[in-house]
Amino acid sequence: MKKLLRRTVTAVLIIALSLGIGLGYDRICDYIDRRLYPRDYREYVERYSALYGVPDHIIYAVIKVESDFESNAVSSAGAVGLMQMLPDTFLWLCSRQGETLDEGMLYDPETSIRYGTYYLSYLYSEFGMWESVFAAYNAGPNRVKEWAADTRYADENGALTNIPFAETRTYTKKVQDAAQLYQKLYP
């Protein structure tokens, strides 16, 4: 009887300890993930997410992949700011909005998020699929239109099945993965 009681208590303790370790591990992983995938500039992201109809996890994913939340980031191609927009694209988007802004405004977090989100919204209205939007954000909408019309790169509905540029393929996958993680971390 004592032996059975001791085994039962031991089993219960092992199960409780395992559950505690498991829960602790999950919390530590979530904490680390939240530190690696922050929601900086939340006020701007929420404002322009609502204004332009782009889910906030998409905006955060693009910022994470493009600049890792560094507002003064500049790419080798000359893309600037949090959302790494080319000055020509920014000026074109400003003209569509009826505004005249200096391209230096791309370093301003609110301006970068506003116009980056507006551009994502524009691209979504063009393509209707986030994968194509991400590819267009990286390689340009004209290239993606060409790919979508070519059966080597897209299915009969225009959904990309094979992105021919390795950089764009990798970028698209990174943004999709980051978007999924943001959605999981911040439901």
Oligomer type: single chain
Task: Quickly give the CATH architecture of the largest domain.
Answer: Orthogonal Bundle
Q: What is the C-level CATH assignment of the largest domain?
A: Mainly Alpha
Q: Specify the biggest β-sheet.
A: none
Domain count, please report it.
Answer: 2
Give the averaged pLDDT, no decimals: 90
Q: DSSP strand (E) fraction?
A: under 5%
N to C succession of SSEs: HHHHHHHH
Q: Helix count, per DSSP?
A: 8
Number of strands: 0
Radius of gyration: 22 Å
Helix content: 55-70%
- Unreliable stretches (pLDDT < 50, length at least 5) are none
CATH topology name of the largest domain, in short, is Lysozyme
Structural class: mainly alpha
Indicate the overall shape. Answer: elongated
The span between the termini is 49 Å
Provide tags for this entry.
single chain; 187 residues; mainly alpha; Lysozyme; 2 domains
List the helices and strands and how they pair.
Layout: H1 2-36, H2 42-52, H3 56-67, H4 87-96, H5 109-127, H6 130-139, H7 141-148, H8 166-185
Helix pairs in contact: 2-5, 3-8, 5-6, 6-7, 6-8
